Amino acid sequence: MEALDKQELHELLESKQYRVVRQRLLALDAADISELLASVPEDYAIISFRLLPKDLAVQVFDLMDGGLQRHLLESFSDHTARSILESMPPDDRAELLDEVPAMVARKLLQILSPDQRQLTLQLLGYEEGTAGREMNPLFVDLNVDMNISQALEKVRRLAINRETIYECYVMDHYRHLVGSVSLRDLVIASPEAKLTDIMKPNPPIVFTNTDREQAARALSEHNLLAIPVVDTEQRLVGIITHDDVVDILDKEATEDIYRFGAVQGTERGYFTSRILNVVRRRALWLLMLILVNTVTGSIITSQSVLLGEVVILAAFIPLLIGTGGNVGAQSATVVIRGLATGEITHKRALAIVAREAGVGLLLGIVLGLVVFVWSYFLGHNMHVAIVVTVTLAAVSTLATVTGSALPFLFRLVKVDPAMVSAPLITTVMDIFGVGLYFFVAHLLLQF
C-alpha cells in the first residue's frame, strides 16, 4: 500500500471516509504524520489529528510546528487540551507555552493540574536561552544509601513517566549530585552491592543559568546520553538529553543565521509571523545601516574635485567596496562558526586575525593582478590601474582583519558574535574602502 499523501487525504476527508483515514494514518510513523498534517489546510489537520489514538497523537503533536499546535489546542475542549499538554515532556510543554500569545498561555496554564502547572512555571521561571529553560525536570534520582536491588525497583517505578532511564543520578540527602550510574551497570551488578560501589563520582554538570548552547556542547564533548543540570546550591534539578541537544543546536543555528543576515527572527515561526512584525524587525537594522552609509556618500561628495579631474576613478568604486564587503563577510562567517563550535577560542584571537590578514593579502594580490589588466583596458591609464590594484590589495587585507576581529571583540564585551552581520561588515567596508581608495588616489596621482 502506498503512503498516504495530502491529495489522497483531502479526497478521503471530503468523502467522509474517516475509518479509512484512521487506518492509513496508523500505517505511518509520528514524524510522517506530522509532516503530512502540516501540508494540509488546518481544518483537515484538526479532523485527522482527532482520529489518532492518544499515545500516537501525543507523539505527533510534539513534532508539530508551534502555529499548528496552537490551532489544535484552540479547537480542543479543556479536557482534551489538558490531556495532550500533560502527556508532553515538561520542557516541550514549556517551550510551547513560551511561543503562544500570553493570553493563550495563561488559559492553557489554568487547565493544567496543580502539579503540572507548578512544574511548567518552574521551567518558565528560568531565563530564556539557558539550560534551566531547556531541561527536563523529570529524571531517575537514586539515593546514595541504596543498594542495587532497591535502585532497580525505583527505576521500574519511575520508568513510566521519565523521558530516559538509561542514565540515573545518585544524590545525597540534600539532593546534591554525587554520582551517576547507567542502567546497564545496574542490571549486571550484584543485587546486594551498594550504589556507591558502581557509580561514577562527580559527573559533568551544567548550571541552570548556563547558556543552552554551552550545555549542548558539554553533553556532546563528554559523549553523554544526558547531562545533569544543577542550581546555584549544587542541587540536581533536571537533565538535558541528547535529543534536546539536536533541538538546541538547531535553534542556535537558526538564530545565528538570522542575525548574520541582519534579520531579527524568532527561533522558529519566522514565516508564520505577522508581516508588520517582520517589517518592523528588519527595518530597524536597515535604517541603521542607511544612516551609516551616508558616511560613504559624504566621502565621495568631498572628493568631487578629484573625480572631476579623473572621472574614470568613479567606475571602480562599486568593485572595491563590493569586494571588501564580500571578503570581510567570508572571514566573519568562518570565525563566528569557529566560535560557535568551540573550534577556536578568544585565546587564539591574535593568531586567527593574523592568519586571516595573510589570507586577505594573498587574495588581494591575486584579485589585484586580474583587476589591473581590466582597469588599464577600461581606462587606458596606468596610474589609475595601479591605484585600483593597490587599493584592492589593501581593502582585501583590511576586510579580513575587520571581519575576523569583530566577532572576537563582540565576544569580549559579552555580545553574541553572530550580531556581526554581513550587512554590517559590508557597510563598514564601504566606508573604509572608499576612504582608502581616495587616500591612495591622492597619494599616487599627486592630487
Q: Would you spell out the secondary-structure blueprint of this structure?
A:
Blueprint: H1 6-14, H2 18-26, H3 30-38, H4 42-50, H5 54-63, H6 66-75, H7 78-87, H8 90-99, H9 102-111, H10 114-124, H11 131-134, E1 141-143, H12 148-158, E2 167-171, E3 177-182, H13 183-188, H14 195-198, E4 200-201, E5 206-207, H15 212-221, E6 226-230, E7 236-241, H16 242-260, H17 275-302, H18 304-309, H19 317-341, H20 349-379, H21 382-412, H22 422-445
Parallel strand pairs: 1-2, 5-6
Antiparallel strand pairs: 2-3, 3-4, 6-7
Helix pairs in contact: 3-5, 4-6, 8-10, 15-16, 17-22, 19-21, 19-22, 20-21, 21-22
Give your account of this protein's structure:
By secondary structure, the chain is α/β, with parallel strands linked by helices. The protein folds into three domains: 6-130, MgtE N-terminal fold (Alpha Horseshoe); 141-258, CBS-domain (Roll), CATH 3.10.580; 270-445, Tetracycline Repressor, domain 2 (Orthogonal Bundle), CATH 1.10.357.20. The chain is 66% helix and 6% strand. It is built from 22 helices and seven strands. It has helices at residues 6-14, 18-26, 30-38, 42-50, 54-63, 66-75, 78-87, 90-99, 102-111, 114-124, 131-134, 148-158, 183-188, 195-198, 212-221, 242-260, 275-302, 304-309, 317-341, 349-379, 382-412, 422-445; strands at 141-143, 167-171, 177-182, 200-201, 206-207, 226-230, 236-241. The chain has a four-stranded mixed β-sheet. Helix 15 crosses helix 16 (242-260). The protein is globular and about 90 Å long. The protein starts with 5 loop residues before the first helix and ends with a helix.
